[in-house]
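Why should sequence recovery work at all? Because a backbone constrains its sequence more than one might expect. Tight turns favour small or flexible residues, buried strands favour hydrophobic ones, and helices have their own preferences. The token representation captures these environments compactly. In the example below, the structure is given first.
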């Protein structure tokens, strides 16, 4: 499309048309038409702008700029501005109808462009949102798996701590009373034996004759026999003492259950040792109080426990 031919068509033949023709013959405007004919529309628009700066009273450059912007640059908003600017400077122009039609066409084309651009942007936004949603879903699944693994590790750690606590409770070392008592009895017997040996030790005598020597030998044999007697007595005393202790225990704790109130610092193993003299019998107490303690081994101050006996 040759711009100068188009411009010649819209020049008109009235007074306003003659003014437009005069403005078109300006040096900058002629150069602008030449650039437009060469297809250099940006250069043509720039020369028209320079004509407006050089000749502020010129209206024709606005019309030429508007037509170039609409037909080739697709800048509809700026084209509408220059169309209106021309109408303001040439209100009596016989090209009003043509300019109004061009302004309407600019508005329609601009609306179509906006809708197309908006639709593509919406489609692009939808694609981005879909991709982001898929990424977040994958990340959510991954986090849920990590949470499940952490919960399993936490459960294992708790169970390990409970087991260590049970082992520590069961493994409480208590003194072996029977061993202590046996040791006391043994030491007592040893003391008695030593005492008897010292008490039966004969006085130092000077050897006078063979008869005296033989008598001394008899006495020494007698002392050896008497030294064995305390050992036998100590074993008999220990046996009798153990039998009496068992009998007293049965009289003090007859058959049947009894109760025990938990004190500060108590545990099942300590209670078992206090009651049965055997810390490993705590499971028996725990089983008898299953309704109160459940599967746990912790006891609280003031709890009344059932103690099975014997």
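From this structural description, the recovered sequence reads:
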């Amino acid at each position: 499309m040759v711009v100068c031919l188009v411009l010649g068509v819209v020049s008109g033949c009235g007074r306003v048309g003659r003014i437009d023709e005069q403005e078109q013959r300006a040096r900058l405007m002629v150069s602008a038409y030449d650039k437009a004919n060469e297809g250099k529309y940006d250069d043509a628009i720039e020369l028209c702008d320079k004509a407006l700066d050089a000749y502020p009273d010129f209206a024709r450059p606005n019309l030429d700029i508007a037509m170039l912007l609409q037909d080739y640059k697709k800048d509809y908003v700026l084209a509408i501005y220059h169309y209106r600017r021309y109408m303001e400077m040439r209100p009596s122009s016989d090209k009003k109808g043509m300019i109004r039609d061009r302004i309407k066409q600019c508005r329609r084309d601009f609306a179509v462009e906006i809708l197309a651009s908006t639709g593509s942007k919406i489609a692009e936004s939808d694609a981005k949102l879909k991709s982001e949603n898929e990424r977040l879903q994958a990340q959510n699944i991954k986090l849920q798996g990590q949470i499940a693994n952490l919960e399993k590790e936490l459960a294992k750690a708790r169970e390990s701590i409970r087991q260590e606590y049970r082992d520590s409770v069961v493994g409480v070392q208590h003194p072996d009373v029977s061993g202590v008592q046996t040791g006391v009895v043994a030491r007592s017997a040893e003391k008695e034996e030593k005492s008897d040996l010292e008490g039966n030790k004969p006085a130092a005598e000077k050897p006078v004759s063979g008869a005296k020597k033989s008598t001394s030998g008899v006495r020494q044999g007698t002392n050896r026999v008497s030294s064995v007697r305390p050992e036998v007595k100590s074993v008999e005393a220990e046996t009798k003492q153990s039998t009496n202790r068992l009998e007293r225990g049965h009289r003090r704790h007859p058959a049947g259950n009894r109760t025990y109130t938990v004190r500060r610092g108590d545990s099942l193993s300590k209670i078992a040792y206090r009651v049965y003299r055997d810390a490993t019998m705590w499971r028996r107490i725990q089983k008898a109080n299953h309704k109160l303690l459940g599967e746990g081994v912790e006891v609280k101050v003031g709890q009344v426990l059932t103690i099975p006996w014997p």
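A few observations help interpret the result. The chain has a mean pLDDT of 77.
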